[in-house]
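Regression test attached.
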Amino acid sequence: MKILYFAWLRQKIGKSEEQLALPAGITSVGGLAVYLAGLGPGYAEAFADVARLCAAVNQSHAGFDAPIAEDDEIAFFPPVTGG
Amino acid sequence: MSTTIRIQTEPFDLAAEVAALSAGAGAVATFTGQVRGEDGIDALILEHYPGMTEREIARHIEEARRRWSLGGVTVIHRVGELKPGEAIVLVAVAAAHRGEAFRACEFLMDHLKSSATFWKQERRAGALTWVEARHSDGLAAARWKKLDQPR
Protein backbone atom coordinates (compact mmCIF):
# COMPACT_ATOMS: atom_id res chain seq x y z
CA MET A 1 0.00 0.00 0.00
CA LYS A 2 0.97 3.60 -0.48
CA ILE A 3 1.00 5.81 2.61
CA LEU A 4 1.14 9.61 2.42
CA TYR A 5 1.91 12.14 5.17
CA PHE A 6 1.14 15.85 5.09
CA ALA A 7 1.99 19.03 7.03
CA TRP A 8 3.63 18.43 10.45
CA LEU A 9 3.19 14.65 10.16
CA ARG A 10 5.44 14.71 7.12
CA GLN A 11 8.01 16.78 9.05
CA LYS A 12 8.01 14.53 12.12
CA ILE A 13 8.23 11.32 10.06
CA GLY A 14 10.76 12.83 7.65
CA LYS A 15 9.15 11.64 4.42
CA SER A 16 6.07 12.49 2.39
CA GLU A 17 5.23 8.97 1.24
CA GLU A 18 6.25 5.34 1.44
CA GLN A 19 5.27 1.93 0.11
CA LEU A 20 4.46 -0.66 2.73
CA ALA A 21 3.13 -4.21 2.61
CA LEU A 22 -0.11 -4.42 4.59
CA PRO A 23 1.10 -5.65 8.00
CA ALA A 24 -0.40 -8.96 9.19
CA GLY A 25 -3.49 -8.49 11.30
CA ILE A 26 -4.00 -4.82 10.37
CA THR A 27 -7.46 -4.23 8.93
CA SER A 28 -8.36 -0.59 9.64
CA VAL A 29 -6.96 2.93 9.36
CA GLY A 30 -6.70 3.10 13.16
CA GLY A 31 -4.86 -0.22 13.32
CA LEU A 32 -2.41 1.06 10.72
CA ALA A 33 -1.85 4.24 12.75
CA VAL A 34 -0.99 2.19 15.84
CA TYR A 35 1.37 0.02 13.76
CA LEU A 36 3.09 3.06 12.23
CA ALA A 37 3.52 4.66 15.66
CA GLY A 38 5.83 1.73 16.51
CA LEU A 39 8.18 2.22 13.57
CA GLY A 40 10.45 4.79 15.22
CA PRO A 41 10.69 7.97 17.30
CA GLY A 42 9.46 10.29 14.49
CA TYR A 43 6.48 8.03 13.84
CA ALA A 44 5.73 7.78 17.54
CA GLU A 45 5.68 11.56 17.82
CA ALA A 46 3.53 11.98 14.70
CA PHE A 47 0.95 9.45 15.91
CA ALA A 48 1.15 10.30 19.63
CA ASP A 49 -2.29 11.93 19.69
CA VAL A 50 -4.53 10.32 17.06
CA ALA A 51 -7.41 12.55 18.17
CA ARG A 52 -5.55 15.37 16.39
CA LEU A 53 -5.27 13.41 13.13
CA CYS A 54 -7.41 12.87 10.06
CA ALA A 55 -7.12 10.18 7.41
CA ALA A 56 -8.14 9.44 3.87
CA VAL A 57 -8.48 6.15 2.00
CA ASN A 58 -8.09 6.37 -1.78
CA GLN A 59 -8.44 10.17 -1.64
CA SER A 60 -11.69 10.25 0.34
CA HIS A 61 -11.95 11.31 4.00
CA ALA A 62 -12.17 8.23 6.20
CA GLY A 63 -12.68 7.46 9.88
CA PHE A 64 -10.14 5.45 11.86
CA ASP A 65 -12.54 2.51 11.75
CA ALA A 66 -12.45 2.44 7.91
CA PRO A 67 -11.22 -0.86 6.45
CA ILE A 68 -8.00 -0.92 4.42
CA ALA A 69 -6.61 -3.27 1.77
CA GLU A 70 -3.24 -3.99 0.16
CA ASP A 71 -3.67 -1.75 -2.90
CA ASP A 72 -5.13 1.27 -1.07
CA GLU A 73 -3.65 4.76 -0.89
CA ILE A 74 -3.84 5.84 2.75
CA ALA A 75 -3.09 9.41 3.88
CA PHE A 76 -2.61 10.83 7.37
CA PHE A 77 -2.78 14.56 8.06
CA PRO A 78 -3.82 17.18 10.62
CA PRO A 79 -7.20 18.94 10.33
CA VAL A 80 -7.26 20.99 7.13
CA THR A 81 -6.62 24.75 7.13
CA GLY A 82 -7.25 25.99 3.59
CA GLY A 83 -9.20 29.01 2.38
CA MET B 1 -22.57 23.76 -17.15
CA SER B 2 -18.86 24.24 -16.84
CA THR B 3 -16.93 23.52 -13.67
CA THR B 4 -13.38 24.79 -13.30
CA ILE B 5 -11.11 23.74 -10.42
CA ARG B 6 -7.52 24.92 -10.33
CA ILE B 7 -4.83 24.61 -7.68
CA GLN B 8 -1.97 26.90 -8.65
CA THR B 9 0.95 28.93 -7.31
CA GLU B 10 0.44 31.90 -9.61
CA PRO B 11 -2.07 34.75 -8.98
CA PHE B 12 -5.50 34.69 -10.63
CA ASP B 13 -7.31 37.45 -12.52
CA LEU B 14 -10.72 37.99 -10.89
CA ALA B 15 -12.14 39.99 -13.80
CA ALA B 16 -11.07 37.39 -16.35
CA GLU B 17 -12.54 34.54 -14.29
CA VAL B 18 -15.87 36.37 -13.92
CA ALA B 19 -15.94 37.21 -17.63
CA ALA B 20 -15.39 33.53 -18.47
CA LEU B 21 -18.39 32.55 -16.31
CA SER B 22 -20.90 35.26 -16.93
CA ALA B 23 -22.12 34.71 -20.51
CA GLY B 24 -25.90 34.41 -20.30
CA ALA B 25 -26.01 34.30 -16.50
CA GLY B 26 -28.27 36.70 -14.60
CA ALA B 27 -25.97 36.67 -11.59
CA VAL B 28 -22.36 35.92 -10.69
CA ALA B 29 -21.39 35.82 -6.99
CA THR B 30 -17.69 35.76 -6.15
CA PHE B 31 -15.76 35.30 -2.93
CA THR B 32 -12.08 36.19 -2.77
CA GLY B 33 -10.05 35.24 0.31
CA GLN B 34 -6.91 37.25 1.00
CA VAL B 35 -3.92 36.77 3.29
CA ARG B 36 -4.48 38.88 6.40
CA GLY B 37 -1.63 41.16 7.38
CA GLU B 38 -2.08 40.64 11.12
CA ASP B 39 0.26 39.82 14.01
CA GLY B 40 3.43 40.45 12.07
CA ILE B 41 2.82 37.69 9.52
CA ASP B 42 5.41 37.86 6.72
CA ALA B 43 3.88 35.11 4.59
CA LEU B 44 1.69 32.02 4.46
CA ILE B 45 3.09 28.81 2.98
CA LEU B 46 0.43 26.39 1.73
CA GLU B 47 0.60 22.76 0.69
CA HIS B 48 -2.13 20.36 -0.42
CA TYR B 49 -2.89 16.75 -1.33
CA PRO B 50 -2.81 16.74 -5.15
CA GLY B 51 -5.66 14.68 -6.51
CA MET B 52 -7.71 14.51 -3.33
CA THR B 53 -8.03 18.30 -3.10
CA GLU B 54 -9.58 18.51 -6.57
CA ARG B 55 -11.85 15.53 -5.83
CA GLU B 56 -13.12 17.10 -2.61
CA ILE B 57 -13.87 20.42 -4.28
CA ALA B 58 -15.58 18.64 -7.20
CA ARG B 59 -17.72 16.66 -4.74
CA HIS B 60 -18.92 19.87 -3.08
CA ILE B 61 -19.65 21.51 -6.42
CA GLU B 62 -21.76 18.47 -7.40
CA GLU B 63 -23.62 18.78 -4.09
CA ALA B 64 -24.19 22.52 -4.71
CA ARG B 65 -25.55 21.70 -8.18
CA ARG B 66 -28.04 19.27 -6.59
CA ARG B 67 -29.23 22.01 -4.22
CA TRP B 68 -29.41 24.96 -6.57
CA SER B 69 -29.76 25.57 -10.27
CA LEU B 70 -26.32 26.89 -11.20
CA GLY B 71 -24.46 27.95 -14.29
CA GLY B 72 -20.67 27.87 -14.40
CA VAL B 73 -18.69 27.38 -11.19
CA THR B 74 -15.02 28.25 -10.75
CA VAL B 75 -12.88 27.46 -7.70
CA ILE B 76 -9.23 28.50 -7.68
CA HIS B 77 -6.96 27.96 -4.66
CA ARG B 78 -3.36 29.03 -4.52
CA VAL B 79 -0.52 27.11 -2.86
CA GLY B 80 3.10 27.92 -2.16
CA GLU B 81 4.24 31.18 -0.55
CA LEU B 82 1.74 34.06 -0.30
CA LYS B 83 2.27 37.54 1.15
CA PRO B 84 -0.23 39.62 3.15
CA GLY B 85 -2.76 41.21 0.83
CA GLU B 86 -2.42 38.54 -1.84
CA ALA B 87 -5.53 36.69 -2.97
CA ILE B 88 -5.46 33.06 -1.86
CA VAL B 89 -8.83 31.61 -2.95
CA LEU B 90 -11.59 32.41 -5.42
CA VAL B 91 -15.07 30.91 -5.54
CA ALA B 92 -17.23 32.23 -8.39
CA VAL B 93 -20.74 30.98 -9.10
CA ALA B 94 -23.02 31.91 -11.99
CA ALA B 95 -26.79 31.42 -11.77
CA ALA B 96 -29.99 32.84 -13.17
CA HIS B 97 -30.72 34.77 -9.95
CA ARG B 98 -28.72 36.23 -7.07
CA GLY B 99 -30.14 34.04 -4.28
CA GLU B 100 -28.79 30.82 -5.76
CA ALA B 101 -25.47 32.42 -6.63
CA PHE B 102 -24.94 33.88 -3.13
CA ARG B 103 -25.96 30.70 -1.32
CA ALA B 104 -23.93 28.34 -3.48
CA CYS B 105 -20.87 30.59 -3.16
CA GLU B 106 -21.06 30.51 0.65
CA PHE B 107 -21.81 26.77 0.69
CA LEU B 108 -18.74 26.04 -1.43
CA MET B 109 -16.49 28.28 0.66
CA ASP B 110 -17.69 26.74 3.96
CA HIS B 111 -17.04 23.22 2.68
CA LEU B 112 -13.72 24.15 1.14
CA LYS B 113 -12.57 25.45 4.56
CA SER B 114 -13.70 22.36 6.43
CA SER B 115 -12.75 19.53 4.08
CA ALA B 116 -10.49 20.50 1.16
CA THR B 117 -7.00 19.13 1.86
CA PHE B 118 -4.86 22.24 2.31
CA TRP B 119 -2.50 23.05 5.18
CA LYS B 120 -1.03 26.43 6.04
CA GLN B 121 2.09 27.58 7.81
CA GLU B 122 2.56 31.17 9.00
CA ARG B 123 5.98 32.79 8.85
CA ARG B 124 6.78 35.47 11.42
CA ALA B 125 10.32 36.88 11.63
CA GLY B 126 11.63 33.85 9.77
CA ALA B 127 9.94 31.29 12.05
CA LEU B 128 7.33 28.90 10.64
CA THR B 129 4.34 27.62 12.62
CA TRP B 130 1.48 25.40 11.44
CA VAL B 131 -1.94 27.02 11.54
CA GLU B 132 -4.41 25.14 13.77
CA ALA B 133 -7.84 24.30 12.36
CA ARG B 134 -10.68 26.38 13.75
CA HIS B 135 -13.66 24.58 15.23
CA SER B 136 -15.91 27.32 13.81
CA ASP B 137 -14.99 26.27 10.26
CA GLY B 138 -16.40 22.80 10.88
CA LEU B 139 -19.55 24.34 12.34
CA ALA B 140 -19.95 26.64 9.33
CA ALA B 141 -20.03 23.62 7.01
CA ALA B 142 -22.23 21.54 9.35
CA ARG B 143 -25.01 24.14 9.46
CA TRP B 144 -25.76 23.44 5.77
CA LYS B 145 -26.99 20.02 6.82
CA LYS B 146 -29.89 21.75 8.60
CA LEU B 147 -30.34 24.87 6.50
CA ASP B 148 -31.32 24.97 2.88
CA GLN B 149 -32.44 21.44 2.19
CA PRO B 150 -32.19 20.46 -1.48
CA ARG B 151 -35.13 21.59 -3.54
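Expected vs. actual: identical. Residues 2-77 of chain A form a domain with the Ubiquitin-like (UB roll) fold (CATH 3.10.20.30).
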